[in-house]
């Protein structure tokens, strides 16, 4: 593939995990001129703790050692021994197989890896932001409109407009603008049934972040403040993630069927939760184990951080012309597979790999087509796995909660699919598809 005299301009909409990780990698390529446009004026700490699985770490390593290091600098070891293998542990919080007692083993595990860590979303964003030069990121720029104009064959620019009335253009736009993505509306069409997020199972999530010592004082088992446990039960599953080098604990309860409506999807820190949030009724958890109840009671103390979660039905395509979407914009998933950020990072790794070879505007569509072909099936399967896990956590997926052996097989398979992908092969497949497509175009010309 040939080169061009001027750098290709790439506008990245959204400076979240997907947008900043991608920017941190692309900014190293001299043939690209990137700029990130982020809606908010500064990132706030919405108290989300991320426990990144093996595929997320592999994707960061592909994006560059400094991206991986930015994460390592901010993350905490989940276990006491930094080299020990750790997993997300699944327990039953009620029923005949309840197993949350201090001497009991988890029923299954998801995402085992050596030296596993957790990180607060705000810390990770700060680390990634530090890798992108300040003049390449504009805050307070909320994308409102996007359109493409063909000027000469293969030379048209993508145009866009922000909420403050300013406009811009680029050779390519990559939409990493989250679950309520504006770019998604452009790519799939505003009237498409998969345009907006949905909450088919009416999930309501309650989450609190407290000092770890306060959690222990409130009765939370010490071991649940140092690991990533998920305690399952029919009226809600309970989980904990250690944050901020072990000094704070993010604890949550997710209840299936508790949201106000199917279409209600807020996201943490979004929307006006006041006045319409639902209280978490601790009385419903009398048959849960004492260890699970202690966490429910801690979360119920303050339900101001409560929201309806959602995901996307499958988009038919992830790109249109020179515009593509990635991360939650393309495939928001329920948080139950712990793999949304990981999938966003896998997207970024593939795009970064492809754009190494994209030197002319006429090659952009081939790159976005290859990205779509490789990433859409896998990322949409992960959305499906997260839905299935959510039902399993609520004792509503077949009968697996009745048989710990079946549960172990089920969770192990789901964990392997999301976390143990061969990402180098994924990148290579995408590159081969792009090269085929570019060859096909030049043969036809
Ligand atoms: P976001 O992080 O949402 O970023 C989108 C960015 O775009 C934001 O900064 C936003 O302000 C900006 N934006 C929005 N609209 C516009 C616009 N119009 N113009 C410009 N900018 C815009 N994933 C894991 O892998 N592991 C976990 O353990 C895990 N735990 C989770 C726990 C919870 C409670 C939740 C809710 C999610 C969890 N996830 C987890 C999922 C993960 O947080 C998301 O998948 C990930 O943040 C997606 O990254 P993103 O960059 O695509 O979107």
From TrEMBL:
The keyword Flavoprotein applies. It comes from the Eukaryota. Coiled coil: none annotated. Pfam families: FAD_binding_3. The chain crosses the membrane at residues 6-27. Residues 10-383 form the FAD-binding domain. The keyword Transmembrane applies. Signal peptide: none annotated. Keywords: FAD, Flavoprotein, Membrane, Oxidoreductase, Transmembrane, Transmembrane helix. Belongs to the paxM FAD-dependent monooxygenase family. This is FAD-binding domain-containing protein. The lineage of its organism: Eukaryota, Fungi, Dikarya, Ascomycota, Pezizomycotina.
